Every structure is written in C-alpha cells, then in structure tokens.
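Input record (Table S2, row 242):
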Amino acid sequence: MNSDNQLVKGYVIRNVPYGESDAIVSVLTEEGIISFKARGIKKITSKNASSCLLYAFSEFECTIKGNYKYLTRGSLISSNYQLYEDIDKMCICGLVSETILTFLPESSKQIYILFEYLMRVVNGEFELFSFAAIFIAKIIVECGYGLDVDGCVKCHTKNKIVSVNYAEGGLICYKCRENENIESPLYLKTLRYIFKVDEENYFHHVIEKPLAVRLIKELMNYLKNQYDYRKLVFCEMFFETY
Ligand SMILES: [Zn+2]
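Output record (zinc ion complex):
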C-alpha cells in the first residue's frame, strides 16, 4: 500500500447512490467520519457491495486522487443484518446516524464507542430506546450543549429541583420556576441520568419506553433549536412513528 492509499475500519452510516451504479459512502471510524466514492457497488457483480451496506462494520482500502477518496477494496466484517428486520432498530439507527452526520460532522472516538454499544443493543444486549436516549444526550454533550443537570441552572442550588428549561440549558428549582411545568421526580432523575451515566453503566438501567421517547423528542428539539435546524428526515420519522 503506497502513501496515496488509506486503510480504515468502521461503521457505514450513510450510503447515497449516484449515477447508474455508484455511491458515496460515509464511514464512522475511531478517528472520525470518512467519506469515499464507491464505484460500481450497485452492480450485481460488485465484490465490494456488501461491505458498503448501511450499518455494516467493514474494512475499506481507499485511494486518494485529488480531492476525492475512492474505494478500491471493501471487506465486510459484520453486516448487523438484524437491524433490517426491525422498524424500531432502523428508526433509532437512522436517527442517531443522521444526528451525528448533521451536528458532529467530524465525530470523535467517544461517538465511535457509543456506536459500538448501539450495535450491541441492536444485537439484543440491552433495551433500544433507553440506550438511544443516552446516545442522543451524549451527542449533545459532544456538541457543547450539555444540559446543566447538577443543580438549578439559575441559582445553582441542588435542593427542590422541580423542572427543566431547555432554553435556559438546565434544571430549575422551586424558587426560580416561572412558567415551567412541575415534572415528576422520575422524569428529572432520568434526565439527569442520561447526561451523567458513564460507559460502565450504559446497560445498567432500563427507562420506560414512553419516558425514553419523550426525552429523545425533547433532546432532538433542543439540539435542532441550538443550530436553527428544521428539516431532519429520520428525526421527523421518529416524531411521526412514536
Ligand atoms: Zn434556582
């Protein structure tokens, strides 16, 4: 392999067809997101097609020509095909991938590790929506918009926390509360949990699905508002489905 070649390993998080049989493929690796042109992969005879399937874990050899990278060889390691049989799994993986690609185009090692956990969840190791809520919270932290969940965002007391104000960026105490709804202790505890939980405990606590769905929706709206984004395909699908 000469210096114009690159060897990468990671998860396919986007595969956009173009032309008659080509595609642009984006791969989440430990070092960030790498995109390349994959020629001929839509042809039935393509040897590289399976490595470029959405959410496949593969190794890719690329050659660099000018401003573009081109796939020269792809080797499938794991197809994660269980995903395709389950609408919930497809929705969550679509939502997470879209959120990473939109808001963290450089990605990070932390996000890669979270995606490894997501694939374990997809393969049945843990409850899907609970982990999705954690993943979205961690993406928000990586974006630099992590909520203040250690105490009241206004007066910093840790006592009598009763609500959250996303526009203010954190929890709200009884004294500082204005128009915010009073939230249940379970909701507040869970919101704090998804921001604070560390890697060793990702699979420790199952969040009831209605609460996980509510948190995912609130966090996606919060993130979209930070960037003034309105149109996200999988995000809208999530809101319509759940
Ligand atoms: Zn306060």
